[in-house]
């Protein structure tokens, strides 16, 4: 079961635990054929960086162990424009040749916007809907092409980040080099997943040159934060290198008595004994503290109030997570390369919350209840890949074969109880002044899941044409033990998924493409008659075009898509304690993205999404309607400019962004609307090296999110949420 606190209520819906306990996807490696490298290099031209100095367009550098950058040596991207990605094909391929819609949010863009959450990082990416649940510091929740990603589509370094109802990994953006969004079904390579796509995050890794950074931040809600990033070779020969990234934060939030505290540390170590072999160890630990309920009371008539539904007396959400894994690669010769990636990860979550069930406005008394959820999730995954290069006449092949295995163990304990009434005096209610007892547990379930998948992909290149064909079969077995009911169920699922895509790379930088892809994710649970649910599946048809303007560092892309998801779950109208599997959702849309560096020191991103989503099969009162909370249109633009060295105020720069979130329906019955809203973000920064060379590496930055403090709300499935208020953060960074 999935438990989600909504404005002082608890909503219980069946969770896709096949995704909650989902198989870790195979590790994403990288490889570049000589033809791909030549194509990529021919599209790259010298450009000027933000400080006016001449830099080369971001091209994948050759690294020991392969023709392209090794999977454990992925180079950081300079600027905003990424030219290659391993996510779309699990091989290092120019983005313009990937037959699917791809976006990359680079480290420089993350720094310029000083993003604090994964959701913020994706705010300017097409096809991604953030803020569907308003301001919620507990989780990074977002949709891609109208489909939920929280449980089914989050990856780190090519491996799936597991999730359960409350044991959901939280992401610290400071620990990332980049974020890649692959839109559309990706099961043909990654296995279990959403038809909307996936989000893959690349961790910071050891650097070939010495690098040090210290940063301090302060701002809204008594924020105090310090962070560091250190890396470089350990020995003169560079056989050993390291990276150590950390962050510590103490902060309040816009919610009464609610913290947003975090401790994060991520070590990495690389060993390269020779030019053909490399091993990188990647670790991480994070502890976070916030609230178990970010919601506000909503009246029975549906009016969202400003009465906070939680209570700091019984409202802490404590989460601990860690991961340890490795990425190994060995190149035998120019034909064969083998890789093996593995990771063990563990998440524990203890969420306490109160909720207001009813308010008597005549007496100003709020009746309340409580809940507590304790989740533990441990997952081990190992993935082995073989890359093979060969030619058949004029056709060059890059064949990827792989097999992965995952074992996941999960426990979910839940209890519900009552809390003392809260007196809502005309002044601020007395939050935190009453003792609230933790409830007894009434639900305790263990789940074990084993999954194995085998996959193969061929990238066949013939002149300007690249045909990409991928196929995979998954076998998943899940055992569920109910400790209270003393029952045990075993469910077995298997499915074949595939993708076929064709790209034409024209001599003028235009690359039209088309693809067809399918998705698969098993479900856990039964209907009221005890019958198990079928896996949720999906398919997509997509056509698009990508363009790299000659002589300019930039990438412009557009896509049309049509996705259908089958076997969706919905509430049983005859028995609200159960669900039925009759759902079918169709998502059609258009996406446009531009990421360009048109002038020295100027970076611009633009994104537009038009989405038409409909419930094709479902409850009688929802068939033909649009799923709630997903805007039909969205538009964003962000630009950052730094004055050149010959300007009046060299080193001074500013950024400005606008985000338009279109209208959407507030419930699946489509009886009321969420109004459109336009939000603005801004940045101001100064590089002190322009003032004095002895201050080289020192930078001040000021960022504001929701600059004009627009008050707005949104509803999803009939539950209302308030949006994020204005947040201002000042930072001082020193690099040497």
Automatic annotation (TrEMBL):
Alphabetized Gene3D superfamilies for the sequence: TonB-dependent receptor, beta-barrel domain (2.40.170.20), TonB-dependent receptor, plug domain (2.170.130.10)
Domain TonB-dependent receptor-like beta-barrel per the UniProt entry, residue ranges: 271-707
Residues of the signal peptide: 1-27
Biological process annotations from GO: siderophore transport
Keyword Disulfide bond: no
Chief site of localization: membrane
UniProt keyword terms in alphabetical order: Cell outer membrane, Ion transport, Iron, Iron transport, Membrane, Receptor, Signal, TonB box, Transmembrane, Transmembrane beta strand, Transport
UniProt source species: Methylocapsa palsarum
Similarity-based family: Belongs to the TonB-dependent receptor family.
InterPro entries named among the record's database cross-references: Beta-barrel_TonB, Beta-barrel_TonB_sf, Plug_dom, Plug_dom_sf, TonB-dep_rcpt-like, TonB_sidphr_rcpt
UniProt-recorded name of the protein: Iron complex outermembrane recepter protein
């Amino acid at each position: 079961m999935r438990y989600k606190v909504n404005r002082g209520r608890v909503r219980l819906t069946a969770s896709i635990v096949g995704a909650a306990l989902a198989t870790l996807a195979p590790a994403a490696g990288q490889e570049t054929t000589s033809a791909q490298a030549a194509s990529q290099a021919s599209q790259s031209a010298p450009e000027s960086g933000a400080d006016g100095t001449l830099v080369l367009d971001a091209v994948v550098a050759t690294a020991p162990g392969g023709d392209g950058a090794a999977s454990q040596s992925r180079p950081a991207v300079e600027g905003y424009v990424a030219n290659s990605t391993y996510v779309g094909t699990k091989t290092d391929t120019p983005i313009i040749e990937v037959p699917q819609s791809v976006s990359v949010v680079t480290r420089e863009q993350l720094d310029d916007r000083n993003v604090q959450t994964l959701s913020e990082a994706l705010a300017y990416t097409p096809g991604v809907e953030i803020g569907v649940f308003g301001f919620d510091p507990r989780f990074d929740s977002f949709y891609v092409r109208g489909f939920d990603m929280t449980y089914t589509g989050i990856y780190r370094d090519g491996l799936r980040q597991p999730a359960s109802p409350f044991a959901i990994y939280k992401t610290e953006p400071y620990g990332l080099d980049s974020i890649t969004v692959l839109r559309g079904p990706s099961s043909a390579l990654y296995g279990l997943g959403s038809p909307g796509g996936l989000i893959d995050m690349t961790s910071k890794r050891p650097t070939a040159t010495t690098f040090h950074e210290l940063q301090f931040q302060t701002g809204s809600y008594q924020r105090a934060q310090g962070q560091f990033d250190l890396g470089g070779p350990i020995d003169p020969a560079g056989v050993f290198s390291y990276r150590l990234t950390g962050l510590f934060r103490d902060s309040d939030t816009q919610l009464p008595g609610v913290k947003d505290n975090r401790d994060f540390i991520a070590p990495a170590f690389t060993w390269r004994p020779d030019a053909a072999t490399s091993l990188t160890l990647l670790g991480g630990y994070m502890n976070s503290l916030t609230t178990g309920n970010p919601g506000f009371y909503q009246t029975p008539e549906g009016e969202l109030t400003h009465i906070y539904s939680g209570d700091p007396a019984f409202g802490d959400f404590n989460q601990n997570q860690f991961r340890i894994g490795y990425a190994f690669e060995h190149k035998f010769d120019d034909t064969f390369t083998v890789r093996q990636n593995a990771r063990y990860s563990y998440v524990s979550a203890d969420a306490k919350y109160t909720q207001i069930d009813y308010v008597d406005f005549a007496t100003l008394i709020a009746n309340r209840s409580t809940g507590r959820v304790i989740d533990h999730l441990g997952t081990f995954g190992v993935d082995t890949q073989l890359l093979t290069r060969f030619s058949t006449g004029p056709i060059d092949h890059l064949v990827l074969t792989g097999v992965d295995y995952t074992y996941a163990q999960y426990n979910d304990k839940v209890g519900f109880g009552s809390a003392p009434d809260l007196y809502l005096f005309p002044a601020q209610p007395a939050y935190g002044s009453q003792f609230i007892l933790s409830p007894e547990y009434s639900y305790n379930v263990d789940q074990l899941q084993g999954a194995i998948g085998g996959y193969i992909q061929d990238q066949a290149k013939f002149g300007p044409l690249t045909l990409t064909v991928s196929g995979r079969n998954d076998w998943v077995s899940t055992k569920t033990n109910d400790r209270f009911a003393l029952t045990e169920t075993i469910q077995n699922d298997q499915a074949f998924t595939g993708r076929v895509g064709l790209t034409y790379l024209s001599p003028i930088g235009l690359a039209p493409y088309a693809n067809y892809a399918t998705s698969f994710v098993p479900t856990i649970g039964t209907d009221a008659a005890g019958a198990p649910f079928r896996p949720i599946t999906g398919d997509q048809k997509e056509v698009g075009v990508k363009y790299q303007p000659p002589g300019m560092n930039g990438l412009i892309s557009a896509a049309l898509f049509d996705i259908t998801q089958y076997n969706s779950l919905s509430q049983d109208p005859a028995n609200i304690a159960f669900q039925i599997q009759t759902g079918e959702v169709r998502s059609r849309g258009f996406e446009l993205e531009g990421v360009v560096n048109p002038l020295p020191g100027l970076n611009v991103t633009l994104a537009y999404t038009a989405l038409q989503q409909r419930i094709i099969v479902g409850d009688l009162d929802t068939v033909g309607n649009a799923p709630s909370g997903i805007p039909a249109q969205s538009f964003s633009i962000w630009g950052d400019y730094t004055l050149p060295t010959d300007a009046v105020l060299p080193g001074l720069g500013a950024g400005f962004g606008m985000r338009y979130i279109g209208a959407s329906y507030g419930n699946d019955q489509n009886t009321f609307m969420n109004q459109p809203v336009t939000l603005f973000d801004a940045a101001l920064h100064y590089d002190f090296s322009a003032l004095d060379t002895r201050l080289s590496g020192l930078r001040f930055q000021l960022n504001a999110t929701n600059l004009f403090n627009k008050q707005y709300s949104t509803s999803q499935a009939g539950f209302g949420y308030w949006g994020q208020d204005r947040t201002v953060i000042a930072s001082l960074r020193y690099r040497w």
